[in-house]
Amino acid sequence: MGVANVCFFMNFAHEKISLEVEGGTWVKGRHTRPKGYANDCEKYSEAAIADWMIIRATSGMIKNGKAIELVEKALGVFG
């Protein structure tokens, strides 16, 4: 699986920044079950090898604005 075959919640391709929402954090969702967690580890590793910055957030961080704040901060590195 190469980085071109993975999907993130939001991508900024030019800057190589992605936002990933880790849903179901408190209810044993896909991201916290063994197979989903293992798949995510592979996805994040492929992205790192390809020099992508991954901003990981919970659904709570989306709701309270912290995720967007982190993305803006990451994008500011290129501004």
Please, could you describe this protein's structure?
By secondary structure, this protein is α+β, with helices and mostly antiparallel strands. It has one domain. The chain is built from three helices and three strands. It has a three-stranded mixed β-sheet with strand order 1-2-3, sandwiched between helices. A hairpin with a 4-residue loop joins strand 1 and strand 2. The radius of gyration is 13 Å and the shape is flat. 9% of the residues are buried.
Summarize the structure.
The chain is 42% helix and 19% strand. The protein has 79 residues and is an alpha+beta fold. It has one domain.
| Total count of strands | 3
The string of secondary-structure elements, in order, is EEHEHH
Instruction: List the strand order in the largest sheet.
Output: 1-2-3
Main pleated sheet: 3 strands, mixed
Uncertain spans: none
Backbone CA Rg: 13 Å
Percentage beta strand: 15-25%
Q: Per the principal axes of the C-alpha atoms, what is the gross shape?
A: flat
Helix content: 40-55%
Structurally, how many domains make up the residues? 1
Number of helices: 3
Separation of termini? 31 Å
Structural class, please? alpha+beta
Report mean pLDDT, rounded to a whole number. Answer: 83
List the helices and strands and how they pair.
Layout: E1 10-12, E2 17-22, H1 34-49, E3 53-58, H2 59-64, H3 66-76
Parallel strand pairs: 2-3
Antiparallel strand pairs: 1-2
Key attributes of the depicted protein:
single chain; 79 residues; alpha+beta; three-stranded mixed β-sheet; 3 strands
